[in-house]
Amino acid sequence: MDIFRREDLHHLYLFYHVAKEGGFTRAAARLGLAQSSISRSISMLEKSINLQLLVRSTRKVALTSAGEKLLRSLDQGFGQLENGWMLLNQLREKPAGTVRINGSRQAIEQVLLPRLQSLRDAYPDIALELIENNTFVDIVKERYDAGVRYGSMVNEDMVSVRIGPDVPMRVVGSPNFLRQHGIPAHPRELDKYPCIGYRGYIDITPPEDGCSAMPAQSLKPRRWEWGWPMKRRI
Questions:
Q1: Element (H, E) at 126
Q2: Which of 38, 124, 127, 206 is buried deepest, with most CB atoms within 10 A?
Q3: CA distance linking residue 36 with residue 25, whole number of Å
Q4: Residues forming a β-bridge with 148
Q5: pLDDT truncated to tens, each residue of the chain (234 aa)?
Q6: How much is the pTM?
Q7: Are the C-beta atoms of residues 225 and 215 closer than 8 Å to each other?
Q8: Is the distance from CB of 225 to CB of 199 less than 8 angstroms?
Q9: How far is residue 200 CA from its own chain's centroid?
């Protein structure tokens, strides 16, 4: 046997259980397989390595010297795999571990923080990390488990789930400012007002109405600058 093939791993796994259980009958019962199928698999393994691993009799099987050596080498590896599989089943029944969630300060304060106590009560073994970031990071690349975004600002390859009601947005100004400059009837009129420019960048397709996004020509394709193209005096 010059190359280790994928099917050899299956043969080795069956040999491991036959050796641990002391026979084909108990191994078949444990694995839910037919004895003939297991016996055929062990024969194929012996043929591929050109060594006899088991001495078969009508009542039981015994390991050859080569079989004993192989079992010792498999014992730790398959034992660890089975322990790991059992741990995964326990996680499915009782979630545990660290969950990293990315979001803006507003999203964390308004959406996540009010739900922390109920999450803690339901899943006490989960350690939650909330990472505040006002830019739209790549959730997969930065190894986050989830992210909180407002509206439809989600990459095409992401799965989104609504977790809160609509968040109303308001444009406000001080009474003195409004008396001096007047009250705008539409966001486009903000171009006439003294403003502090704030830019954010997102890697998503812009809205169809064009009202809340503008193309940033100097940036890479599909990267958009959101905000109004107004004259900024500050």
A1: strand 126-132
A2: 38
A3: 10
A4: 103
A5: 555 677 778 898 899 889 988 889 889 998 999 989 999 999 999 998 889 999 987 667 899 999 999 888 888 788 787 777 777 776 667 777 889 999 888 888 888 888 888 888 888 888 889 998 877 778 888 888 888 887 766 666 778 888 888 877 777 888 998 898 888 888 788 778 887 666 655 444 444 443 333 333 333 334 444 455 555 554
A6: 0.48
A7: yes
A8: yes
A9: 26
Q: Which residues in 125-143 are b (16+ Cβ under 10 Å) and which e?
A: eeeeebeeeeebeebeeee
Helix count and strand count (H, E) for the chain? 7, 8
Long-range contacts of 47-53 (CB under 8 A, 24+ apart): 48/1, 48/8, 48/11, 49/1, 50/1, 53/15
Reading the block at residue 130, the tokens are: 């909330």
The three-class DSSP label of residue 69 is helix
